[in-house]
Amino acid sequence: MLPVVCFLNQFLKYMFIDFNTLGNDAKVWVYQANRAFSAEEKEKIATQLRSFTEQWDSHGRALRASFALPYNHFIVLAVYGEDAASGCSIDKSVRAIEQVQNATGISFLDRSQVAYKAQDSSVVLAPLSQIGKLIAQEIIQPDTIIFNNSISTFGAYATAWEVNAGDSWMKRYFKKAASSNA
Q1: Is 48 buried (19+), middle (13-18) or exposed (0-12) by CB count in 10 A?
Q2: Which of 17, 65, 90, 118 is the most exposed place for a label (fewest CB within 10 A)?
Q3: Kindly report the CA angle at 85 between 80 and 86, in degrees rounded to 5?
Q4: Of the candidates 158, 162, 124, the residue with the CA atom closest to the CA atom of residue 140
């Protein structure tokens, strides 16, 4: 039996898997771009991330990994739930994101902007410092979809990544706006 196991481990050494086959317990990291990426940039990002995920390991053990590029504004990097990513392998993923940044000129590590969906469903970025003002101006309303980039599992990505602003950390601003208008 051992030779078969060794053969399978060699075969599975580096494995990119389909994003939609990840289980709810898969670990995910969401990186938000500071602007939309073009079709050419998306292709370049996908090529780099495919290469990275095919080689991603944790202390020599292959990680079954995948990624998605939703709305041309985000990188969602994922590791299959049974494969534990260590601190070193997570560091490798951050370096891969930095390489994507260098190749495209798009920042994915700036956490000072909030992404939300406009009424036409396009993704809009706003400085975190302007959220209260945008709510007071009713540009962002309680039913405006915002992106919760702090999610950490595929299950949360599927159910809680896109959330109504009124059900998020922004709800305190709606309370302030309501009391100011009363």
Answers
A1: middle
A2: 118
A3: 170
A4: 124
Rounded distance, CA 112 to CA 78, Å?
23
Q: Which of 72, 95, 101, 90 is nearest to 28 (CA)?
A: 90
Contacts of 127 (CB under 8 A, 6+ apart): 112, 113, 114
Q: C-alpha angle with apex 45: 38 to 94, nearest 5 degrees?
A: 130
Compute φ and ψ for 178, nearest 5 degrees.
-65, -40
Q: How far apart are CA 85 and CA 74, in angstroms?
A: 21
- Residue pair 149/30 in contact (Cβ under 8 Å)? The answer is yes
C-beta of residue 82 within 8 angstroms of C-beta of residue 99: no
> For the whole prediction, is pTM greater than 0.90?
no
Q: Are strands 27-32 and 15-16 parallel, antiparallel or unpaired?
A: unpaired
For 128-141, letters b (16+ CB in 10 Å) and e give eeebbebbeeebbe
Give the pLDDT confidence of 123-141 residue by residue, as tens digits.
Answer: 999 999 999 999 999 999 9
pLDDT (tens digit, 9 = 90+) per residue, 41-92? 999 999 999 999 998 888 888 888 999 999 999 999 999 876 777 788 889 9
| Beta-bridge mates of residue 32 | 74
